[in-house]
Structure formats: structure tokens, C-alpha cells
Amino acid sequence: MSARLPTGGRLLDRSQPLDFTFDGKRLHGYAGDTLASALLGQGQMLLGRSFKYHQPRGLVASGAEEPNALVGLGEGAFFEPNQRATAAELHAGLTATSQNHWPSLEHDVGAVNSALTRFLPAGFYYKTFLWPRSFWKHVYEPFIRQSAGLGKPPQEADGSTYEHFHVHVDLVIVGGGISGLAAALTAGREGREVLLIEQTAHWGGRAVVDAPQIDGQSAEDWVKSALQELETMANVRMRTRTMASGLYDHGYLMAYERVSDHAPATPGPRHRLWRIRAEETRLATGALERPLSFAGNDVPGVMLASAVRDYLVNWAISPGDRTVVVTNNDDAYRTALALYRAGLAVPVIVDARPQVTGALPQAARDAGIRVEPGRAIVKVDGKKRVTGVEIGLQLGEGGAMEHIACDAVAMSGGWSPAVHLWSHCGGKLTWDEAQALFRPDASRPPRGDKGQPIASVTGTANGHLGTAAALADAGLELDVSEPAEEPMAPVWIMPQGAGPALKRKMFLDYQNDVKVSDVELAAREGYESVEHAKRYTTLGMATDQGKLSNINGLAVLSGALNAAIPATGTTTFRPPYTPISMGSIAGAARGPLFQPVRRTPIHGWHEANGATWEPVGQWRRPYAYLKGAEDRHTAVTREVQAVRNSVGLLDASTLGKIVVKGPDAGRFLDMIYTGRPSSIAVGKCRYGLICNENGFLVDDGVVARLAEDTWLCHTTTGGAEHIHAHMEDWLQCEWWDWQVYTANVTEEWAQVAVAGPKARAVLESLGGMDVSKAALPFMTWAEGELGGLPARVFRISFSGELSYEIAVPADRGMELWEALLQAGAAHGVTPYGTEAMHVLRAEKGFIMIGEETDGTIIPQDLNLGWAIAKKKEDYLGKRAQERPHMADPKRWKLVGLEADGGAVLPEGAYIMAPGENANGQRHTQGRVTSTYYSPTFGRGIAMALLIHGPDRMGEMVEVTDGQGGAITARVCDPVLYDREGERLDG
Amino acid sequence: MSTRRYSAFALAREALRDHLGWQRAWAKASPKPRYDVIIVGAGGHGLATAYYLGKNFGIRNVAVLEKGWLGGGNTGRNTTIIRSNYLQDPSAAIYEKSRALYETLSQELNYNVMFSPRGVMMLAQTEHEVRGYKRTAHANSIQGVTTEFISPERVKELVPIIELKGPRYPVLGALWQARGGTARHDAVAWGYARACSDMGMDIIQNCEVTGIRSEGGQVTVVETSKGEIGCGKLGLVVAGHSGVLAQKAGFRLPIESLALQALVSEPIKPCMDVVVMANTVHGYMSQSDKGEMVIGGGTDAFNNYTQRGSFHHIEETVRALVETFPMISRLKMLRQWGGIVDMTGDRSPIISKTPVDGIFVNCGWGTGGFKAIPGSGWAMAELMAKGHSPLSAAFGMERFREGRFIDESVAAGVAH
Ligand SMILES: Cc1cc2nc3c(=O)[nH]c(=O)nc-3n(C[C@H](O)[C@H](O)[C@H](O)COP(=O)(O)OP(=O)(O)OC[C@H]3O[C@@H](n4cnc5c(N)ncnc54)[C@H](O)[C@@H]3O)c2cc1C
């Protein structure tokens, strides 16, 4: 059983005991513990169940690479599934729950009997569940989904907050081991702006555990003095608990700081996403130890040798009473020696190498530990806990020569540099035959826009496994004393000649239950590409992203294919290095801050006066104003009637307003619009259409000429930004030599439409400029003073009524609105919303971008040919509109529709035609584009597009009702209200 | 005796002999001097084309050439949404044909592609979107595609984890296709490859096409990294690299290549049974059979070939989905990746003859062609075998010259 030793533990603060719970059990640990070390300290080795077979699993590692020990942490709005116990720092009151089992971790009915696992090899689901067909969705799939899936979903909205940080530095160093510290010292002393980040809560990495002598002192002391020096440097910033998650184009580095996971009561954000732009990025990310593949290497109690050492040195944990060490290299002997020094039994060191002669093995022998060269573990005994190992010849086929009782196994298959970040953005690797590892190929780095390298690698991550070499690589030539190591042997599976029965129990990917036999099956079935093998077996696709399994799996695949490892190649490394919270990615942009709501100067008044909102672009506009118990429909009816009979007010501030100015402005606008804005006289307005290069109508609005060289272009609310961008695109990319300036002044003006027969009376009672018909006829504008406010008044109408749009500087907008309310009170002035605006314009037959248009409509379809300057040599969209299909007389054209009995036609309905096409679809001949109840006419009205429409007035057509049936409607003129335009002109 | 056909019985038998008897899913092949038909690109569309050439037209002297590993392009990188609730007639026809073929594909290929008709929902979050989806529902009702516009209450019933009253964009309803869903992307490629191989076709991986030669306006030979290969007809089905290959054949294509990204969360127990797309905020999500939340959004804005993409797009997508499904905030992103998608001017595909006799192209599926694999292969095979296919007729590349767009992006329509 694992246990806490009475003394030791360099990270423990035994003066601060902490209580926590695991599956409801109250347990104890100390400040400085991780959840993993605390659980081990309480004898809890069984920590989870695997994904596919629900096999019992214990801790394998001590850091980010841990595949098994995943737990749910926290409760309610603070619950998070799938947290690695090795990366969770213990705090008082921590609640952890184990995952993926039912009813309990100890007794999981989902556990697949190991005799049955042979029926569920890699990819078994591709080969079965084929019949009966409906069973996949209703029976098999729900079963698979339920048994997979690991942790429970959070039930509540997230109670924490998150933030983003942007930093710019000369040098960012990733990794706070001795290489990272050395690189920081070197750069810091040169005065460079440095950011040094480390994913764990502690500095020093492996060296402080492995304890070489550096510069005449212990590694621990060297790290302390390095930190002291760095802390005095104002140009060096250091952050622990900060993991570099991904390297992106141009060297953009993302880092994930877990600000308060270790102390949840702290106010402030839980996580912080650092977005780092550095002149130089140095990766000192160290290396990860590899497991060995032997039968039963997944039984709880089998751990990485380095992890055993970490638990022992850092947290005073004994993994068991008797620990067998199994290895293909010298490094694992450090674990044996550490155990020995702690007074723990190491019955044997099983070494796959035929000869073992190095200094570390000698030290072990000197300590009286039995060393067995040329041997393998052929099998681990035990189910929920190791009870012993069978030992045999590494070159054999699995015959057991000796049984050794033990309750823990420390394994080492050698080391792999953590090259993930290097690879994210295209850095290439080279295979180091001697050390059997992939390391960064400095000649093929990830590159920036000018071909320059955007990252470099330092220390162990660069393949320098020895302390002296790693420090030298980071720029510090120091005296190091540590035992020399003999070469490792590239042994991947034990024993070499193992047959299928053993290979079926050799796990490569612990979490996803991928075994050596699975990878070999993939190769046998032709899934030979490393990507195919990965996808077919799911190797490396678990939450650890294959940190422990990828290279081992690759070696097994290469073996099965009889190919060299580098020829087989690795799978792609993708960000993030370890998973990062969605909350941190979203940052502060949540709830009301998700997307800014743009507000007109009158927004607050709307809110206070019953507005029911409609999102339009980034604005929110009143759909209607509900009075008392009114519903939307009643309110809209009232608002429409008010405009038709008296006067209404519309907040039109959201309409786009783009000023276009300069000697070439007229010529430019003649290209942008289908008409000829250059011929508008100063003081006049004209309706204009904008098409894209494909000829399709994308925006419309009134253009006013403000001065000889200045125009004001009104756009739709949703169109302001992209029409401005469209203009700039053409100016900057195509007509860069034209002298034109554009400015989007939408928010500089508040604009109110005063519409209805009493509009002029209201303006006149405000007092000020002359707004009479003679002074300000339809489609003109004037500047002056109105009710004491500086104003531009446009005689334009989108309602079909006598109407003025009054623009005042934004900060006077509310004054204008209130003055109008007051001046209009005598006439029952009524604010109206977007829906009334829609109904009014539809009664008048005015088209609306986004309703009558959908990106496939040209002005000619909408009978707007009059707004095209035919003689103009060119405008955007002209050439496109001359293409055969655009000139096709069969294009659907704008008409009105009246349903039988005055009903309101359904939105989006199609007009059917007889017969079917070659694909068996019912023919259509048109569609409804707008449909409303018209209070003015007391019935439904609609606009539609119809083949030969304008020639078919009075004809009856069949419109879909959406339920498979049809509604009959009569084709009519789309202009229903005031066809002569007398009211407009009044 | 080795095992070829898949079944529960075969699996049990193989289990008893340690699975040593399974045959290769597809045979190893090296190029013959000449084939009647060569398909370039062993993505889903290329493989499906080859399959239906053999199955529907008996054309089996076929090679599929793949520069990397089969299924390694967008077919193996996508988020596997399958639906046919398209607006325009030609789109609805080919996507519905495709969806219908998916229903029985596992049985037909004897390979479980895990088609899961769990339902696809497209949220309407503005009045404008409500009208747009109602229109699609009307179009679908006469196109033979079963969809309906559903209420917010029904949305909540189907997706309990959704936030209907998002402070920014409330959910006003949704377009719902109950028989839409997902499938296992790799399995689609592998299943077709296995079936093609069974018909005697050669699937040649690590074989990049580097040149295309023709004589008298008729294609004759493709040059590859494994030597020259003669052909009677040639199908180019290479998605993001279509422009490059067309250039080698001597013509141009109206295609732009952009990075499209996706990401998955760590796996959790089932909490969302349907696919949800939220177009106003730009994100969509489903839960895979492994339990991962599979998430995607829009393309990067700039052209590129790197299969990576920018972080700020991931951010935009995640932000949108955290807003829509607040509980995912405490899940973690496990992995992100990108693919290069082939975009046309009207966002609809090209299935077409070309200026060179004997060369056909199938591309432009952009961000949404996984769902189309069976239908597109069906139509492309018919076009290559007979010179005409009703399903592909509208997708000829001459449409751009004629202005006859098949525009599915009602995006240009703006809300007032
Ligand atoms: C992130 C992402 C998410 C997506 N989500 C969805 C979704 O949810 N639903 C949906 O329906 N669609 C989706 N798609 C789109 C879908 O993936 C594609 O439309 C579809 O897979 C394209 O298939 P394909 O066979 O045409 O192309 P690919 O699968 O890309 O195949 C083309 C093949 O051609 C090969 N090739 C290229 N050049 C050469 C050459 N010179 N010689 C030989 N071979 C060559 C390539 O290596 C590749 O294997 C998504 C795409 C991406 C990137």
C-alpha cells in the first residue's frame, strides 16, 4: 500500500494539514500536496476507470502527462470534470469525485472482463453493429455513448470569471527547470525584457529531485540562488502555474495561467489567458519519461520511475512496501537508489539490457540491490493492485523464470523531449538513434512571415538529457557533478518475443485502452500510415493527447511494418499542450459583454417606455413599444395607424451615415452606386442602390449632396460597416490614386424620422428653420436650427407619408426626441418601432434589403431599373448584370400578392408551378418576400417575386402553406398605398 | 482461412485466434501503366466517385491516387454534420440524395460508418433569421426534405443545456431536421476504400499528381511521384488543391482556399443528443460518441494552405458557444486543428466537365462537403460515365460565367 513517510518531502508543509474529500470520504493531506500525492499518502492508489474497458487504473505519472487519475473537482457552479489529480494542488475543503464508473470506483459493472476484451479489439465497432439498421441509433450508440465519456457534465452555468492578458517582451522562456532558469539568467543579465513561465507551482523541474551538484552546490541551492538573482531583475517577469498552450503563426504564443484553482476563494479571475508577442521564444520544456510495454503494465501500482522518485522526494510518498524497478536505461536506477535511501525495499531491478555496467547500476549494486540484466517483466500479477511480477528473459517469449512479490513497479522506457510547442507551427523533428528519441531539428524550425525562425529549444527539450549539457545549451557553462550514464537500449516491449496473449495485455494508451495488439492489428489490416493507425486504434487521442503513448505506439507500429521509426513519422502535434478551459478562451466576453450592444442616444428612453427589442446588427432597436397590457401585434397596429392618421417618431440613428469627400468623390460614387450621385445638386437627395461585383443588390439608401465635394451616404442599419469597408476596399486596392476620403459618421448623429400628415405641423411648432413645402420640398435637405438645436433636416420618406428625418449631433439627440414628443403631444405623436416601419414601407411597396433581397437579387428584379444610370460607362456590378442569366426574361420579378379572404400569407412561402424537375422536386415560379397584416387595409398584404410577374396582374397563384398544402393568392401591384405619391409629396 | 466480411460472428471467430486472420481493409497497390479512369484525391468525394463508377456503371479499371494517406484531407478533419435542409433546389436535391444514401451506407459497404440521425437544429436568433429559416422550411416542404420550424420551448426540450434567453441574442426558434445527424468521418473514407479495393480498383497512397498531359484537347497521361500513368478519363477531386491541379491541366477554377478550424473538448457523459448550429453568433456544436463536444465556426478571412488557422477564430467560436451553452465554460479544449477548404463564389460546389476533354472536376464543397460525399460520388460517377447527371447539372462551372449562382449564403441579405 502507498503511504506517507514520517519525514521528508521537499514541497510539504507539515505544519499545515488540510482536509479534503474523495468520493465523499474525508481524507487528510498537507499544504504543498497535489491531490495525487495526498491520495497516495492516504493509501488510495485506485483512482479511475479506463475509457473503453472500464479497467481499474491508478496513478502513472506525477505531472501533466498523467493519463489515468482524472477526477471531478468542486461542486455546483464550480464543478469541473476531467481534472488531472497530478495537476490539482490541494487546498482546504477540496472535493474530488472519481469518474466513469457505476455504481462505484471499486465495483464498476461496466468493467469488461479481461477475457471479453479480446472480443473488443481496436476498431471493433467498424465491423459490427451493422444490423438491424435502426439499432445503431436506438440501441448500440446510446450504449457506447453512455459507457464512454469519462466525467460528468457540469450542471450549472460557470460561477467563475476569466480574463485575457496581452504582453510584449523581448524573450519568452517556456519552462522553469534549470535550463529555463539558466536561459533567463543569461538574458536577464543582458538587460533583455524576459518573461519566464512554468506550468507547475514550483521552480527547478527535475534537477531538484534528481539532485546533481551544480556549481559546487546542490541543485536545490543553485535553483534558490538563481531565483534570488532573477527576482532582483526588473526586466525579468516570472510566473508559475502558467502553461504555454500553443505556438501560432508569426510566433504568437498562448499561455494559460491557473490563477486561483489552488485557492478558489481568492477574488478575481480563475484563469488568465496570456497572449504573448515576443521577439524570441525559447522552449525549455524538458522531457517526458516513457512507459515500457509489458503485460499488466496498467495494473494500479505500476508507475513511471521518475514519478515514483517525484512522489518520494517531493511529497514523502512510499508507492508501496516493495517496488520492483524495470528499465532499459540508467536513469531509473536513481529511483531505486532514492527508494533505498528512504529505507524502502527494492527486491530487484529488471534491466532489459544484456550488460549493465554504468556508475548508477554500480551504486545500486553497492547498496545491495539485486540487478538482473537481460531480463524482462513478462507479466504483472494483480487486478486492482500489483501483487507481484513474473520475470523472464528479455530475448525470450514470455516464459516466467521467477515470481517476485511486490506491490509497486517503477518503469522507465527512456525519455522523449517535449517537442509539442516546437511542432505546433511547423517545426520539424529529427530522430536521435543513440538516445532513441525525436528532438527538434534546428535546421527546420517553425518559421515566421519572412522565413525567420520563430522559436528555439533549450536544454533537455533539445535532447540534452544530462545536466551539464542542458545548462550549457541554455548558455551557462557550469561545473556539474553527476554520475555518467551508459547508453540506453531501444527496448519498447517486454519480452521481445511476446505472443498475442501477452501483447493483448500490454497497454500503450492507458486512458483509451489501446494495447500493443491493437496497433499490430491496425498494421495487419492496412492502417499503415501513422495517422491511420492512430485513428483506427484511438492511440494518443485521449485527454493526455498521447504524451506517454505516442512514441511507444509509433515504435510498435514501425516494428509491425518492419520500417525504421523515423520513416514511419509522428502524428501532428496540435495545441493545446494540455487542455485549457473554454472559459479562459472566452475571457471576459460573456453575458452582457459578449458582444457590445450599440446604443443610440435615445436608447434609454426606449427602454423606459415599453420597447420590446429586436437585435439588428450590433444594435438593438425597438420592435414596438408596448403600452399597458398590449401584445406586439396590437402595439404595431396602433403605431401604424398613428403614422397614417397623425404623426409618428422613429429613432433612425442606427442608419449608416458615411461621408464621402474629395475632388474625385463624385466619380467614385458613380462607380459605387448604380445611379449617378455626381449629378445630385447641392441641397438635394436621391435614392441610390449599391451592388457587389456579381451584380447583386447589397444595400440601398438616400444620398445627399452636402457640398460641392461632399456627399452623405445613408446605408441600412446592418450595412454601415461593411459598406464603408467595401468603399475603402475599392479605394485602397483599385483606385488608390483617386482623391477621396470616406468616414463612417453613423454614431456622430442622432437621427429621428417624423412621419405622418402632421409631421410639418410638429416641426413648425418646434420653431426655427423654414420647413415648408416651398422651402424644403420632397428629396431635399437643409441645415439650420430647429427648436434651438443645430440640425440637418432631410425631406425623405420610408413610410409613404409626409416625412422629415432630422439629424442633430449625437449628444443633442435626447433633447431633440423630447422636444418632438412635446411639440407633437397635441397631435398624439406616437413613437413607432421597426415592425411598424416594415409594415408602412410594405404598404407603400418600398423594398427592404434583406427581405426582398437575399444576395441573389439584382435591381432589375425589383423593378428598380429606374435607379440605374443606363448610359453610365461602368459601375460595380454592371458587367455582371449583363451576363446571360441576369438578363434572362424568366427571372422572378417583384409583384404584390393578396391571399384569398385577406389572410396573411406565411413568411417564406413559395409559389408553386405545375410538374416536377428531373430530381423529382416540385417546380416553383416565385416566392413571398415580405408578408404582414396591414392595419391600413385591414387585411394581409405581401410582396413576392414571380416569373413574368409584372405581366400577370390579377392572375391567381398557389402558395405553399408549409404543411404540404396550398393557399390561393392573386397577383397585384406591390404599391398599395398612395400610388400617386401625393402624401409623400405633400 | 482469413476473414474478409465483417459481422459480430466474424469478430467472435477472430477473437478466438487473436485477430490474426483479418485481411487488409484495402490492398496495397502500385500503379499499372494505364487505367480507364483515374481519380485524383482519395478523400471521401474521390473514393465515393470511384465506388459508384464501379457499382452503378461497372467501370472497375480505376485507380485512385492520393498524395498522402487516404482520407487525410478535409474528410478526416471535419465535424461530420450531415443535413440536407438547403434552400436552393439543386442543393437540396444532391444533399438529400446524399443523406438518404448515408442511411444505408454501413450495410451497403459492410463497414460501420456510424451514421447517427440524431437531428440537426439551426437556431434562429434574430427576426431576420426566423424569416430565413421559415423560408427554408417552405422550400424543403416541396423539395421532399423533411424539416420544420420549431418553437423555443421545443428547442429547450431537445437541448436542455441551451440558454434560450442569451442576454445578447435570444433563441427565437429553430429549423429542425430530425433525420440529419453525424457519421464517423474516417470510417466513410475507409469503408469506401475497402469497397473499391474489393471491386479490384487500385488505391495508391503517397502518390502525388505532379503534372497532367493531354493531346488534341483530350487527356492522356498523369505524371505522379510514382511515375507516369495513362488514363482514358480523369477526375480531379482534391478539394483545397483544386486550383493547383487545374493549373497543371491548363485551365483555371474560381476557387479560393481558406483555413477552417475545429476543436473538441475533453469527453464527458452524454448531455446533448442533437447537433446545434448557431449562425448569428457563428458556432456549432455536437457531442461525439466518445463524449467530446465537437465545435466549429467560420473560416479564417485570408487565403492560406497551412491547415492551422488563427487563434482568434477559435476564440470567436468558443465565445459564441459559451454564450449559447453556458455549462461548457468549465469544460476544457482538448485539441484544435484546421483544414483547407475550397470556396467558390456562390459557396456551392462544382461538379463539371472542363475545357479539356476527359477531365472532370468535383470541388468547391468548402465548409460543408462531408455530408455530400455519397451523393456527390453518385453524381460525379454518372457524369463521368454518361456525360450527364441530373443531380450535377446545375453545378457546372459555366454557371459563373452565366451568372447562374446557386447561392446558399443568404449572408448578403442584411437586416434593416
Ligand atoms: C474543420 C472542418 C470542419 C468541417 N465540418 C463539416 C461538417 O460538419 N459537415 C460537412 O458536411 N462538411 C464539413 N467540412 C467540409 C468537408 O470536410 C469537406 O467538404 C469534404 O471532406 C471534402 O472532401 P473531399 O474528398 O472533396 O476533400 P479531401 O478530403 O480534402 O480530399 C482531397 C484529397 O486530395 C488529395 N490531393 C490533393 N492534391 C493532390 C495531388 N496533387 N495528388 C494526389 N492527391 C492530392 C489530398 O491529399 C486529399 O486527401 C468541414 C471541413 C473542415 C476543414
Automatic annotation (TrEMBL), chain A:
Q: In this protein, which residues make up the domain named SoxA A3?
A: 504-587
Superkingdom: Bacteria
Residue span of region Disordered: 440-459
Q: Which residues form a coiled coil?
A: none
GCVT N-terminal domain residues are 602-872
Provide any one GO MF term from the record.
sarcosine oxidase activity
Give every Aminomethyltransferase C-terminal domain span. Answer: 893-978
Which terms are listed as keywords in the entry? Oxidoreductase
| An annotated GO BP | tetrahydrofolate metabolic process
Residue ranges, compositional bias (Basic and acidic residues)? 441-450
Q: Does the keyword Oxidoreductase apply?
A: yes
Family listed: Belongs to the GcvT family.
Which NCBIfam families does the UniProt entry name for this protein? soxA
Query: What's the name of the protein?
Result: Sarcosine oxidase subunit alpha family protein
What organism is listed for this UniProt entry? Pseudoroseicyclus tamaricis
From TrEMBL, chain B:
Stored PROSITE patterns: RHODANESE_3 (PS50206)
- Name of the top EC class for this enzyme: oxidoreductase
Tell me which UniProt keywords the record has, alphabetically.
Cytoplasm, FAD, Flavoprotein, FMN, Nucleotide-binding, Oxidoreductase
Name the residues that span the membrane. none
Which residue stretches, if any, does this entry annotate as coiled coil? none
The EC number(s) given in the record are: 1.5.3.24
Q: Which GO terms describe its molecular function?
A: nucleotide binding; sarcosine oxidase activity
Q: Report the cofactors.
A: FAD; FMN
Which is one Gene Ontology cellular component term of this protein?
cytoplasm
Q: Which GO terms describe its biological process?
A: tetrahydrofolate metabolic process
Q: Which residues form the Rhodanese domain?
A: 37-81
- What does the record give as the reaction this protein catalyses? sarcosine + O2 + H2O = formaldehyde + glycine + H2O2; sarcosine + (6S)-5,6,7,8-tetrahydrofolate + O2 = (6R)-5,10-methylene-5,6,7,8-tetrahydrofolate + glycine + H2O2
Q: Main subcellular localization, coarse class?
A: cytoplasm
Report the subcellular localization.
Answer: Cytoplasm
Record-stated family = Belongs to the SoxB family.
This chain's protein is named Sarcosine oxidase subunit beta
